[in-house]
Write a structure and sequence with these properties.
The chain has 2 domains: about 40 residues, no CATH class; about 70 residues, no CATH class. It has about 150 residues and is mainly β. The chain contains 2 helices and 8 strands. The N terminus and C terminus are likely disordered. The strands form 4 sheets. A two-stranded antiparallel sheet has the order 1-2. Strands 3-4 form a two-stranded antiparallel ribbon.
Length: about 150
């Protein structure tokens, strides 16, 4: 029988465990303290980059970091698997099924998009009105946001 004991961190009055978040330096290996591990509940993994080991969404996956929700979410234009869910159902969805905060899961006519016949309609993550996809499709940005211009 496996027994999991709660760990109190020094200076923590709530008794809750504190894991690392996106972009924080982490440690690879086993038997690590929570303060050395990435927060798996938000989809973060400790991964090796050229700069070192950091917490991030799985490299090469359909997930990217959503600054608003502070968890890994489905990248724009990626397939999603829900439509018109209630807010209660939405809260129950795991992070890897949700689109970014300013995006929604919408039904698209895949035949019209691809030009191939016999394709079923699909659901993809698409920016909500007033937002457009960033260059790398990692997030939705305000359509009225002006690019910064270097002062002369």
């Amino acid at each position: 029988m496996l027994i999991i004991l709660p760990v109190l961190l020094p200076g923590s009055d709530s008794g809750s465990l504190k894991f690392l978040t996106w972009g924080e330096k982490c440690s690879l290996g086993e038997n690590l303290k929570p303060s050395e591990e990435c927060d798996l509940s938000k989809g973060l993994l400790c991964q090796q980059y050229t700069q070192g080991t950091y917490c991030g969404c799985k490299i090469g996956s359909s997930l990217t970091w959503d600054k608003e929700s502070e968890e890994c979410r489905r990248r724009l234009a990626n397939e999603c698997f829900y439509d018109q869910v209630t807010s209660e159902d939405w809260n129950e969805l795991p992070f890897n099924h949700k689109c970014h905060e300013r995006a929604e899961c919408v039904k698209v006519n895949w035949t019209a998009i691809t030009g191939r016949k016999n394709n079923d309609d699909k659901y993809i993550c698409q920016c909500q009105g007033g937002y457009v996809g960033s260059k790398d499709f990692s997030e939705c940005v305000n359509i009225n946001r002006t690019p910064s211009v270097a002062s002369q």
